[in-house]
Design a protein that fits this description.
about 10% strand, globular
């Protein structure tokens, strides 16, 4: 197996819909081609939170993967979010993704764990089953510390040691844990690619990572590539300047009443940038009002993105 090279920006783009709510394959292909045209974009993740992946039918999920794979060719790998609740259903979902041309799997925790927690060994078995059933390269997904689906360090180390696991997307959102656990993962697995997914506050994590796997990358890939490069160079002044330039957009997209509103805001922002023609979302997401639209457009102007 040749591991995916995700050392850079890995956007998790939105899923474009037509005005009547159908998956817009032409628009999704255009979005994918735009993203991979940016030097430093190393992969695309579909069917995640930003992509409303769990709001698509299984048939729509497969069709979207095929559209993205065809659009990007061999320029970057397409990584599918795997969200099935049970271990077997997740493994079968991964096999469908592989058959559709995906290279990788971003393996979500079973969502029942968010409320009830997980039994010891269950996450490890989930990753084993996904990889063995599909052959997809797996990205370990570390959920926020405030949820019961966040993995303790021992579980992360076990998963990282498994065949097929090539990277971790860490969104623990607890900087004490970040500062103590990331070095241990680095020490034990030097080849494991560390990717931050702290969309709403990237600066702290940018000096410890190989890249960023973020929905934000689907709206502002150019400055985020610069931010990653500044972090690699240990150039705090440069990283801070990029962070501060983006802060109005960060606030307009992510500092909202619900983090899920970020998906709606990303679509509004892409429409303002001229990348999407339509900002339609699927329920349970709701459109944002005109005041939010104006706020997002003003923020993009301040960041010199429009």
């Amino acid at each position: 197996m040749n591991p995916m090279d995700l050392r850079g920006l890995v956007p998790a783009p939105v899923t474009a819909f037509t005005s009547d709510g159908e998956v817009d394959h032409a628009a999704n292909a255009d979005l994918a081609r735009w993203l991979v045209s940016v030097d430093g974009v190393k992969g695309l993740v579909c069917l995640g939170h930003a992509g409303e992946g769990t709001y698509l039918t299984a048939e729509e999920q497969v069709a979207l993967i095929r559209t993205l794979v065809e659009a990007v060719g061999d320029r970057v790998p397409v990584i599918a979010g795997i969200t099935g609740e049970g271990t077997m259903t997740a493994a079968l979902e991964a096999r469908r993704a592989a058959d559709a041309g995906a290279t990788g799997a971003l393996v979500y925790p079973s969502h029942g764990w968010l409320r009830f927690g997980f039994q010891a060994g269950a996450p490890q078995e989930r990753y084993r089953a996904v990889h063995e059933e599909s052959g997809l390269q797996c990205v370990l997904f570390q959920y926020p510390d405030v949820t019961k689906a966040t993995y303790d360090l021992a579980t992360q180390l076990d998963i990282a040691a498994q065949p097929g696991v090539v990277a971790t997307k860490n969104g623990v959102r607890n900087m004490r844990r970040w500062d103590t656990e990331i070095p241990v993962l680095r020490e034990n697995f030097p080849d494991l690619q560390i990717l931050t997914c702290h969309d709403e506050y990237l600066l702290h994590t940018m000096f410890d990572v190989d890249g960023a796997l973020v929905g934000y990358g689907g709206l502002a890939p150019e400055p985020l590539v610069e931010l990653i490069e500044a972090g690699r160079a240990r150039d705090y002044a440069r990283a801070r300047e990029i962070h501060d330039r983006l802060l109005p957009v960060t606030k307009a997209v992510y500092h909202r009443g619900s983090h899920m509103e970020g998906t709606v805001a990303l679509k509004i922002g892409l429409r303002a940038r001229g990348v999407l023609k339509d900002a339609t979302v699927r329920q349970p997401l709701q459109p944002l009002g005109e005041a939010a639209v104006a706020e997002i457009e003003t923020a993009l102007q301040q960041a010199k993105l429009i």
